[in-house]
Amino acid sequence: RSSAKLVAPLGCLVSRQKHTLPDLPYDYAALEPHINAEIMQLHHSKHHATYVNNLNVAEEKYKEALAKGDVTTQVSLQPALKFNGGGHINHTIFWTNLSPNGGGEPKGELMEAIKRDFGSFANFKEKLTAVSVGVQGSGWGWLGYNKEQGRLQIAACANQDPLQGTTGLIPLLGIDVWEHAYYLQYKNVRPDYLKAIWNVINWENVASRYATCKK
Description:
This protein is mainly alpha-helical. It folds into two domains: 35-95, Helix Hairpins (Orthogonal Bundle); 106-212, minor pseudopilin epsh fold (3-Layer(bab) Sandwich), CATH 3.55.40. The protein contains ten helices and three strands; from the N terminus they run ααααααββαβααα. The chain has a three-stranded antiparallel β-sheet. A hairpin with a 4-residue loop joins strand 1 and strand 2. Helix 2 packs antiparallel against helix 4. The relative contact order is 0.14. This is Superoxide dismutase.
């Protein structure tokens, strides 16, 4: 009886589809001059692809450890799952947060929420930029939704830590401040990159995420 009970969960593990690199909803050169094509190509086809590949490897090893009841190996794989899983989650959000038709200011409920929680759009923009500039080393600046409080909140995450998995905030807008996101174009001047990225923020996508998480 006990062995029969294992068939379903192990079968689910065996049949799990591997993660894949999502297609960009625009061409690599579409965000120029704000983010150039070379950065986008390397960022998407190399960096994000590496996170996806490494996540699949880590999950396969985890599946084997789970089947063997090898808790030590399961625990040892947690950093790889967090880093590569977070990298995949974060970048999948990031690509949709950007658009060649982006920029400007949000509208509707999202704009009203920004004014309510930050005083004005200008204040929000200044605060998220400052938090993103201030990330030490590599990481992300985020606009998230605190479901318990029903409010927008700004946060920073180190490395590839996923926002929701590490803070509980639902991600709405993420700004990648790893050097691979800007160095080829902006060198070590992160503030210049952060000034430019506001020109390609896809506010329709951010607003859609906000509407979804409020339901």
